[in-house]
Amino acid sequence: MKKTGLILLALSLGVMFGCKTDNNNKKDEVTVMNEVTEEVSDDVELNDVAIVEATFGVRGNCGMCKNTIEKAAKSVEGVKTANWDMDKKMITVKFDNDETNTDDIQKSIAASGYDTSDFKGDDKAYASNAKCCQYDRTMEIN
Description:
This protein is of the alpha+beta class. Helix content is 32%, strand content 20%.
């Protein structure tokens, strides 16, 4: 019994002082970036999830527009983040490429009344937006 206790003690000390963790072996997060106007680059797998970042134009005016646009983008299954730049009229989204694509995200935004690079906003939704959110539909997207 005493011999077993000494063996366990020796093993415990060996584990405590002999094992080192190597943080350099951790995988770095990798994101594939693409513009809607460019071809989609090859997906990079990270923990079996293909995360893609895309940027495309969305017309709008104000903070209320920003909230609605981002909410519409995030409502699409697989969208992780959405950030609309009011000055540039551009949205950057990160999403799981296995669950969705830029067309689905743009269609969701368009359904809420906002024109995107590839889809015209729904006319009824546009008309029901607050006056400050009824942007000039011919405005340039930077």
